[in-house]
Write a sequence for this structure.
């Protein structure tokens, strides 16, 4: 039987159980992304959060952010 490598995305999401969903009518701009990253760093530190959806405005109209703690 072949060994499978661990699913790093799935294990990372288990480490970050709390979710924030940010909706917006207009597409997100680069300045919005910088502001979002700065706010997430203040809440959870640079390694305590990850965004997994919504970077492409044509795909979805929100950003999904996972946090390790309730901020």
């Amino acid at each position: 039987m072949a060994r499978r490598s661990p699913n790093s995305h799935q294990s990372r999401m288990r480490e970050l159980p709390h979710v924030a969903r940010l909706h917006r009518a207009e597409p997100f701009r680069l300045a919005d992304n910088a502001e979002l990253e700065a706010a997430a760093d203040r809440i959870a530190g640079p390694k305590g959060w990850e965004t997994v959806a919504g970077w492409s405005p044509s795909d979805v109209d929100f950003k999904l952010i996972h946090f390790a703690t309730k901020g």
Notes: The first strand starts at residue 18 and ends at 23.
